[in-house]
Every structure is written in structure tokens, then in C-alpha cells.
Amino acid sequence: MAILMDGKALAEQRRAELKNAVEAYKSTAQRTPCLNVVLVGEDSASELYVKNKIKMAEVVGIQSKVERLHAECAQEDVLQRVDALNEDPCVDGILVQLPLPKAINADKVIAQIAADKDVDGLTPVSLGNLIRGIDGVRPCTPRGILTLLDHYEIALEGKEVVIVGRSSLVGKPMALMLLERDATVKVCHSRTQDLAEVVGEADLLICAIGQPEFIRPEWLKKGVSVVDVGITKTPKGWVGDVCAEGIREKVSAWTPVPGGVGPMTVISLLENTLELAAHKK
Fold first, then answer.
1. How many CA atoms lie within 13 A of 17 on its CB side?
2. In this predicted structure, what is the pLDDT of residue 281?
3. H or E stretch covering 79
4. What pLDDT does 46 receive?
């Protein structure tokens, strides 16, 4: 019988553990960890994501703040806001909510975040540490995925892993983190030839392209484990990158959409915040 990798249930479990860890930190350090989110514009999806992150931070005892900037603001305004947070000794983690308006260069904004406050693990310093295998904060979604896979005892060493999507947010760091775990990794993208054939070779398939039901169940090898990062609202409801119809007959394990990767991303963000606070000089 196929295993449903329930990210919502696991996040609840880890949330209780994290709350205890935060209380222990407060008792020792005599301060409260602080996460600061920079939100530019009024994108509805981003508003929802930030709301969930702030709510969950409060549940585990982490102080959280949202810095709101207008969608029409200049890039320099965002950079100055990040600089101010870099200098604020009360702030442990800085998260710039993506995507940013098209007029703003997201790479420059992310690079402006101090490495010791990079709660999302996406600055050049953090990603450089990942490439070199140096300990440090890891990107939230890949970290959450690995936590989920470990919890459900999905083997990684020596396995054929196919990642569909090569973003700096998920695909690329996910590949590096899986290489650290001795998996054999293939990263697919819009120029990949014979995608269905490549997907069909996977022992573990991770999809993060934001294309609703793009991956078809008939592409999958019998017994594959599937992690679906994508989530898109359609007339029939929220769906992932993998068509859910008939998937249970092909897979050994899979993540639901919603309720799979999303909750694990949020809990990873909060775990990163506590770790940054604990390593503060």
C-alpha cells in the first residue's frame, strides 16, 4: 500500500518539539528569537504565505514582524530596508518574500541580506557553503523535503533521483543536498529531451515547476516515491505538478497537495530562525 507522506501531520509534531526548543533558548539567552519578513506589493499568494509563516512563528514562540513596501517602490528602497534589518541586533532572521515585482532585481536584494541572518539559505554565501559542503542554513523547502523523506524512511543513498525544475529556490539546492546524501541526481528543465523517459527512470521524483498536473502517472516507474512541490489553484481546486488521478496505483509513497511540502517549508523556516539565533555572536 502506498504511503501518504503527510507534511501537515509531521509539521505539527515538529512544531511541538520546536516550541520546547524555543522556550529553552529563551530561558538560557534571556531573549526571544526574531524573524523579520519583507513583503513588497500585495500579491495574494504571498500575503497568504506570509500570514501562515507569522501565525506559526507566534505558535512556537518566535517573535515575527512584517515590513511592507508598496509594489511601486524603487529597488533602492528595498535594499535600504534590508540594510536596516542587517544592522538591527534584535533581528535574527530576514526573509524577503518572493516573487518580487518585476522592476526589482531579486538576486541583488537576496545578496544584500547578511549571511548570518539569511533564514532562507539563498544568499551567495549560504549557497556557496552548500556547494562546498560547509555547515550552515539550508534552503527551507529542500530542508523540509529531506525531513519528510527521512521521517518516512525513504532511502536516498544510491537511488536515482529526478528533479523537474532548476530554480535557485528549490531545484538547484535540492540537487546539491541530495548529492550530500549520496543519491544520483538528474535535474530536468524546459530544454530536457524525452522528459517522460527520464522521469520514468526515477526511484524518487521531485517536481517544482508550478505547472498544474504536468507530470502524468503513466510516465512513472512502478514503486517510485513522488514529492510534489508545485501548487496551483484551478477551477477544480488546488493541484500539484503531478496529476493525482491514478497515482496511488503507481507509487510507493507520495506527498498530497496541499498538505505535503508546504507545511514542512514553514517549519523549516522557523527551525532556521532558531538556529541563527542560537549561533549569534
1. 8
2. 62
3. helix 75-87
4. 86
Q: Give catalytic status of residue 83 as yes or no.
A: no
In CATH, which of 2.60.40.1120, 3.40.50.300, 1.10.287.130, 3.40.50.720 is domain 140-261? 3.40.50.720
Helix (H, G, I), strand (E, B) or coil at 237: strand
Give residue-wise pLDDT tens across range 2-43: 999 999 999 999 999 999 999 999 999 999 999 999 999 988
CATH code, 30-114: 3.40.50.10860
Catalytic residue among 53, 112, 116, 172: 53
Cell of residue 52, nine digits? 501562515
Write down the catalytic residue from 92, 116, 118, 120: 120
Tell me, yes or no, if 97 is annotated catalytic: yes
Among 97, 118, 228, 241, the one annotated catalytic: 97
Lowest mean pLDDT among 30-39, 43-52, 195-204, 206-215: 43-52
**Catalytic residue status for 75:** no
For the whole model, what pTM was predicted? 0.95
Q: Which of 97, 88, 103 is nearest to 50 (CA)?
A: 97
